[in-house]
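Final report, Chapter 2: Outcomes

The project's central promise was a pipeline that accepts a single protein chain and returns its three-dimensional structure in a standardized token representation, suitable for archiving and comparison. That pipeline is now operational. To close this chapter, we reproduce one record exactly as it appears in the project archive, with the input sequence first and the structure output second.
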Amino acid sequence: MQTNATPMQVDDFNNIPIKRVGNATVYMRDVADVRLGGPPQINAVLVDGKQSVLIVVMKSGEASTLDVVDGVRKAIPRIEEIAPPGVKVELLNDASVFVKDSIKDVLREMALAAALTGLIVLLFLGSWRATVIIATSIPLSILTAIISLHWMGQTINVMTLGGLALAVGILVDDATVMIENIDTHIEMGKPLETAIIDAANQIVIPTFVSTACIIIVWLPLFELTGVSGWLFTPMAEAVMFAMAASFILSRTLVPTMAKYLLVDHGAPHAAESGREEKDETASALAGRRKFPTAAEIEALANRDAERSALAGDGGLSHFAVPLPEVDQRLHERNGFLGRIQEGFERGFQRMRERYSELLRKTLRNRRRFVAIFLAAAVASVALFFTNGQEFFPEIKSGTLQMHMRLPLGTRIEVTGRIASLVSEDIERLLPGQVEDIVSNCGLPVGPHNLAFIPTPTIGPQDCDMTIALKDEVSPVWDFRGILRKGLKERYPGTEFTFQPADLTAKILNFGSPSPIDVQINGGDSMDSYEFARKLASKIRKINGAVDVVIQQTMRTPTLLVEGNRSLGLGIQLTEKDIADNLLMTLSGSQQVDQVFWLDQKSGNSYQINVYTPQYQLTKVQNLLTIPVDKGDLDPSGSKMQLLGSAATLSVKGTPGVVSHANIMPLFNIYVSAETRDLGGVLSDVKKVSEEMEKELPRGAALEIHGQAETMHAAYIELIGGLLASIVLIYLLIVVNFQSWLDPFIIITALPGALAGIAWSLFMTHTNISVPALTGAIMCMGTATANSILVVSYARERLELHGDALLAALEAGYARIRPVIMTASAMIIGMLPMSMANSQNAPLGRAVIGGLTVATFATLFFVPCVYAIVYHRNSNKPESF
């Protein structure tokens, strides 16, 4: 059964009888026009100046941005099929572009770093087979790390990929040590399998300690809280898993591949072992990266004692291979690679000899050198205070996010027209740079959009403008300066501010439109607002402070309807009756009495909204003629009155948006930084705020929040993590060395690493940031691993002959090759990241600078410290 209780079509509403007067029937069409339409417009969206409809799709926390965007893209063709003819559906703003570009950049950096690292290894080893073995460990270590990250519940994102890219340069370290040591044992005349087994057993402990030092420095990052912990914990996990996998592969896969790929590599050496045993073994012991046994060193020293005495070099010459013999062996290599390796080996051997002479001179003046180096390192650390501070560096991108606020009370239609003019001026100010402009004016429709879309919009006078640029790597900071100046001159009285457009900055701001949020929280709204205005005017004078605005407004144009209560008694109208009639007239019935109608044909439900057309309410006089009555609820049948006969209208200013914190009114002063670092601007904002605190209204409080506050908290945690990593490294080496003194000598290279980081950031004009501090933490582990090689070898030599100076000299000479090889691979691997348009670029620069100076300290400073500490306890005279 069906009835016509519900109109079957929209036109049937017009035929509904609503009243009968005598013999005449009043129909709906006589007093109203019923049609399909929309509620009174409070929002306008323009795409390149054309009216549009904007649908915002947001993902849940556990969903993947790429999956959600791909799903939306796949749904668009289906939407176009069912949409009315002529409707064009397109994707305007795609957050996955930033994610994809970031992942693509990191993958490119990773591939380039792996290629450069492979070339360094090939250059040092001179064997493509050995290089293939070592290079194989890179993708396998990365794959193992990705699987481990999946087990830990992590996803492939910018931070995890950044950690893997960071580890590429050191993933080859364990495999390189293993191949180099296998080659050493082959040159000693051992069969291939025996050489592999002996080499693996000989270096398992030192390589484990070196790898553990690199891994252990990341442990303090797991104590980070807030956004820093959320960002850097996945990076730390990626590096740790990759390094652990690299060590395991160097014990398993690398020896297995060596057995099959190096089978022809060992034959010539075994055949010539009797003829060249003396010099080849010496060369191997000098160049390999392992801890030789005391018996091997003693046997080598005894065989070469006579030549050492003749050379008069304090016993050092038995670690050198005469250049003519090097030339003879290298000349036997054929092909282009052989010639390159020949030239490299000659140059490296000459550099090694010069290094030994320079180290000898340095050891003679060791106390003076140590004092000068420490003074220079401490002085260099002062460079940190000359660098700016920021949370994450801003990178070039393809999007600008601008907010426009017209004079308060501007109608939405006027805002839309001005937004179209502003769009044209933007294209004029940035000729050939703009792809499209999306203007979202007024308050968003619906509570969900207002709650989940971060925007400073408070009324119809506001407009969010998203400017898509043609170049994805545009200097957005320069474009912002051009637009600020040009639009301010063109539209006086209009506020133009810029918000972060990239995903990382939005996350760090926690939805705030600026990185600095000065909050005034007090009991009296007007007093707090006036204080906020004075403070904002002083902040605007700070160098580098831009887009200084007060979010809350107190002078939004408002009509005050004052009902005459005495008169209302006579005409039986109350203030509630006046308010109900005004609400129905201005906002419609959807606010207080929602009714829905089901279209039987389409199956769609429509909300029925009764309201007065807006074109009938363009003047104050129109409001005064609004009929006011009690409606059907009036049993007395009192006559209808006009609003003007029951109330008066006046104009006043009221708050446009009201914010509270701990019940009391809150006012936000938003401040951004441009042409200056965030830390410097924040420091000046704090000074101005402290100077103004004495003028605070009674009971009011002033606090500074936002990204800047989180940045300082992250700095404290990371610096604490840096110190904790040094302590953990020291304790780990103490356990391995069973000594408190030797580990202290090992970590004396770390001040040099800090000095190198300071100089690197200073010379590249890079601000101190969270990525830079993370790079400093990583540099501690790598620098320590190299120092372990030198000190452990010096310890072996000291036990052999008891001469601390000679032990330090021999350790530097014997370990220069693996130290430089490891440092070079790491530095070259960091170059793509340091030069990329990436927020991790400061990390790469910090590692390069720190490792460069730390390598110098490992080869000169550490031997001098070792000689000072142990020569003082020796009764032997100085060797040179």
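Archive annotation: Confidence is low (pLDDT under 50) at residues 266-332.
This record, like all others produced under the grant, will remain available to the consortium after the project formally closes.
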